[in-house]
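Structure (tokenized):
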């Protein structure tokens, strides 16, 4: 792999966007695949929905193809409302009863093309609905959920017993299980909800999601604004493996965990892919590093697919890459919407240079994500304070540090410098490293790590400036929520204000390499 890899070949273009009337044919095609026994939408129904409430009609598009959709309307909550009657609440799909100032978002349909299931597309649609509720101060969301798995059990149990078993995880239902996972609470069981729905035997569940950010208009309410981001940092155990599939299973496990816990980011360690050298014959370190680079397309494809499938922004540690005969240490950022970015390691340790012949990159990038701007600094890079200064100047509030150290001394250099970057710049820093051993793999035989998520040091943050940390040298994933709003307030009213109190009249950090 001597040429620079074209990341476009591995990207997936995933977009959550407003529905358009041009989507109609594709919506009907999906409905026939999802609900074969039910009458699909008519064009006049979709036109009516888009005319009355265009913000409530959303689709997910992958590589230009609509693969999921969500339809809804707004109503005012009424205890006497016949929420159990879909035709009445949804006006038979025409939503002519939509109330622009309603305090309930009523979901009338979500569907995901069966060929694209397992990619957490329904979560993206529910998140879009929740975001609408928060932005427009809507008290709750109500849905009537199908029970498409019930027909398989209808002869053996009542619908109420089926629902109880699904709630207790004894039975999996494609719709109800997903709705509970997305924060809905069960309010009741509705018979004859959609009589034509033979899979559900006409039954549906009545579910509700409460908007905890809702502010009643009738009185002033003081509330604390929170801008939360959930981070997962993987402490990855190095062990001898037989082939690439063994590594892929280990990586997928951790991404699955991060997805289940609804992480916004999952961070892997630097050069965890060196594990693949255990599958190759013994060779000189420099030759082995370049053989390792041959796995780049497979690894990149794996990371990109997992980021989209598990709805996380995946920072794939780092990997050795050959470009134009030169060897680099590169971190790939696989966004959950399918985009891919990369950051080269800028400071190369003497061991990397001596054993493998790694060369440094020549620019620091700050990446736009759906959770704000972030910086990736690979191991040794975080030990140079100028990089974090430059990143925060460009708007980064989160710094991710994949590292790989062999001894406690090396680990502590990374850890202490990462903690210092938090204090100097009033940012959060996540660090993730490898543990375990790789016998007979030179320059990667032993590892020491304690992955953690670090914060500034002030009374409003975690004690000791440690949001969360793993136990030393035990394979695990540490998960923690960080509050970006807290950073903003700290810069204004903290006990000390390191970022604002810089003496830029005496010194400054200047980036010499032109950006772009």
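Design, position by position:
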């Amino acid at each position: 792999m001597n040429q620079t890899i074209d990341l476009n070949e591995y990207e997936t273009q995933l977009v959550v966007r407003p529905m358009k009337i041009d989507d109609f044919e594709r919506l009907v095609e999906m409905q026939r695949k999802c609900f074969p026994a039910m009458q699909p939408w008519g064009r006049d129904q979709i036109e009516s929905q888009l005319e009355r409430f265009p913000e409530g009609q959303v689709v997910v598009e992958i590589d230009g193809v609509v693969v999921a959709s969500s339809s809804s309307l707004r109503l005012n909550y009424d205890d006497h409302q016949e929420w159990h009657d879909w035709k009445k609440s949804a006006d038979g799909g025409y939503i002519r009863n939509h109330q622009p100032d309603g305090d309930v978002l009523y979901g009338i349909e979500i569907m995901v093309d069966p060929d694209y299931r397992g990619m957490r597309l329904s979560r993206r649609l529910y998140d879009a609905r929740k975001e609408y509720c928060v932005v427009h101060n809507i008290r709750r969301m109500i849905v009537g959920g199908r029970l498409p798995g019930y027909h398989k059990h209808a002869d053996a149990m009542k619908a109420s017993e089926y629902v109880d078993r699904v709630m207790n995880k004894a039975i999996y239902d494609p719709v109800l299980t997903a709705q509970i996972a997305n924060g809905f609470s069960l309010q009741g069981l509705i018979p004859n909800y959609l009589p034509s729905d033979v899979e559900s035997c006409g039954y549906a569940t009545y579910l509700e999601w409460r908007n905890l950010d809702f502010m009643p208009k009738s009185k002033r309410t003081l509330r604390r604004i929170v801008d939360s981001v959930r981070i997962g940092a993987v402490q990855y155990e190095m062990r001898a493996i037989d082939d690439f599939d063994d590594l892929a299973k280990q990586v997928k496990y951790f991404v699955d965990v991060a997805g289940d816990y609804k992480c916004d980011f999952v961070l892997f360690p630097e050069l965890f892919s060196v594990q693949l050298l255990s599958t190759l014959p013994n060779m000189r370190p420099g030759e082995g590093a370049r053989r390792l680079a041959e796995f780049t397309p497979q690894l990149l494809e794996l990371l990109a697919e997992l980021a989209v499938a598990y709805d996380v922004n995946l920072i794939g540690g780092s990997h050795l890459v050959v470009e134009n005969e030169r060897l680099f240490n590169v971190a790939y950022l696989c966004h959950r919407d399918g985009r891919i970015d990369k950051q080269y390691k800028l400071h190369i340790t003497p061991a990397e240079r001596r054993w493998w012949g790694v060369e440094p990159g020549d620019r620091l990038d700050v990446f736009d994500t759906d959770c704000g701007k972030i910086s990736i600094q690979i191991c040794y890079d975080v030990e140079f304070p100028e990089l974090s200064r430059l990143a925060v100047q460009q708007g980064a509030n989160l710094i991710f540090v994949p590292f790989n150290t062999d001894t406690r001394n090396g680990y502590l250099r990374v850890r202490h410098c990462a903690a210092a970057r938090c204090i100097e710049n009033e940012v959060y820093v996540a660090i993730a490293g490898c543990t375990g051993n790789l016998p007979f793999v030179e320059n990667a035989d032993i590892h020491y790590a304690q992955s953690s998520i670090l914060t500034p040091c002030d009374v409003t943050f975690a004690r000791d400036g440690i949001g969360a940390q793993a136990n030393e040298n035990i394979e695990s994933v540490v998960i923690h929520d960080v509050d970006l709003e807290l950073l903003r307030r700290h810069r204004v009213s903290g006990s000390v204000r390191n970022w604002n109190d810089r003496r830029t009249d005496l010194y400054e950090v200047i980036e010499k390499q032109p950006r772009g």
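Reviewer-requested clarification: The chain has a mean pLDDT of 90. The radius of gyration is 26 Å.
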